[in-house]
Amino acid sequence: MSVSPTQRALDPDQVRRYLTASLGSGTEVADCGPLTGGGFAAVWWVRLTDDRDVVLKVGPPPHVPLLRYERDMIGAEAHYLRLVADRAPGVPTPVLLHHGTDPGLGDWLLMARLPGRTLWNLSRAGADVGPLRAEFGRALAALHGVTGERYGYDGDRASGATWRDAYTAMVDDMLADAADWAVPLPVSASRVRELVARHAAVLDAVRRPALLHFDGWAGNVLAVDGPDGTPRLTGLVDGERYLWGDPLMDLVSPLLFRRAEDEPDDPLVRAYRAAAPFPLDAGARRRLGLYRLYLYLLMTVEMPSRNITAGNDPGRVALLAELLDAELADLAGPVA
Fold first, then answer.
1. How far apart are CA 10 and CA 6, in angstroms?
2. With 0-12 CB in 10 A as exposed, 13-18 as middle and 19+ as buried, what is 132?
3. Per DSSP, what are the bridge partners of residue 244?
4. What H or E segment, with its residue span, contains residue 135?
5. Phi, psi at residue 244, to the nearest 5°?
6. Residues contacting 137, CB < 8 A, separation 6+
7. Around 292, how many Cα atoms within 13 Å sit in the side-chain half-sphere?
8. What is the pLDDT of residue 36?
9. For residue 19, which of 51, 55, 50 has the smallest C-alpha distance?
């Protein structure tokens, strides 16, 4: 797949410039290299000569067009890391060492590097990840204990005084992005808005804006082997997409392309419900469907900005078209 236009092309000399700007002229880099897995920022691991391991994350160049919710995402992640460290310190997240902004360098973060392999790689290697997924579920429940002052995204991005208002604004922004990038959708934007409005009343059950990670797919969960060889949670990374809303929305990415409501015995779902009980009733199911709709819209609409096409990633394009169509068809069915 082609490199995303939002990712800056870095080299070791540039990495050293960011490290000097962050930690001072006495900082020396022993070794460094790119980390893969994300499509938005450029991310490099760095070993300093004092044996510290850090991660450098650099935002897109200023001329690169972004989706509406992606405005100031580097700054958003810095705010998220401070929030979690202050208000949910039991949730393992990277220690923020520096958030920089400079006309020549752009926006960047320097963080302590957390140890471990990703849940994605562990699962593919056949490791027993059930206990790890349960730990992840409990960590999400702890994160959701943090309450915000409004719903939706921070800054000048989509938000609202109620969760219904915020969710509707988020969908409207995503549909506006689809129009800007001429992204084909299974139905018209007006039909999407009509289907969302048809079911939006279920969102009024949400009365508290909880802190959501909203990018908890398996590639953003880190673990190391415990004394018994079972992977144990060491970190939940890449919090730049955080927002405030319904905790159920954070059960979508960890069960990506699946339905949490159909898998109550999944270790993550079971552990989450033990820590923060909720009913899997008709209202919860409908809300989960709306949240999958938003995520699949996001993943579809972002493809042109990431240079993802049917030619270079046909599997993703076809899968998202199928999943998005299925969620829209479900919303077009009888109202529960």
1. 12
2. buried
3. 152, 211
4. helix 130-143
5. -115, 125
6. 254, 267, 268, 269, 270, 271, 272, 275
7. 28
8. 85
9. 55
Distances (CA, A) of 158 to 33, 150, 163, 165, 212: 35, 11, 11, 9, 15
User: How close are the terminal C-alpha atoms of the chain, in Å?
Assistant: 41
- How far apart, in whole angstroms, are the C-alpha atoms of residue 252 and residue 291? 7
**Three-class DSSP category at 220:** helix
Angle of helix 282-301 versus helix 314-331 axis, rounded to 10: 140
* Alpha carbon distance 319, 300 (integer Å): 10
The pLDDT profile of the chain, 336 residues, written as one tens digit per residue, is 467 899 999 999 999 999 999 999 999 999 999 998 778 999 999 999 999 999 999 999 989 999 999 999 999 999 999 999 999 999 999 999 999 999 999 999 999 999 999 999 999 999 999 999 999 999 999 999 999 999 999 999 999 999 999 999 999 999 999 999 999 999 999 999 999 999 999 999 999 999 999 999 999 999 999 999 999 999 999 999 999 999 999 999 999 999 999 999 999 999 999 999 999 999 999 999 999 999 999 999 999 999 998 889 899 999 999 999 999 999 998 876
* Torsion 191-192-197-201 (CA) sign: positive
254: which 2 tokens? 């960890």
Position 261 scores a pLDDT of 95
Q: What is the CA radius of gyration of the chain?
A: 20
Q: How far apart are CA 149 and CA 144, in angstroms?
A: 14
Q: Supply 25's token pair.
A: 């002229």
In the block, residue with structure tokens 């691991």: 45
Q: Residue 42 forms beta bridges with which residues?
A: 58
Q: Quick one: tokens of 81?
A: 């890391």
Q: What single letter denotes the amino acid at residue 3?
A: V
Residues 307, 40 contacting (CB under 8 angstroms): no
Residue 213's SS3 state is coil
Residues in the chain: 336
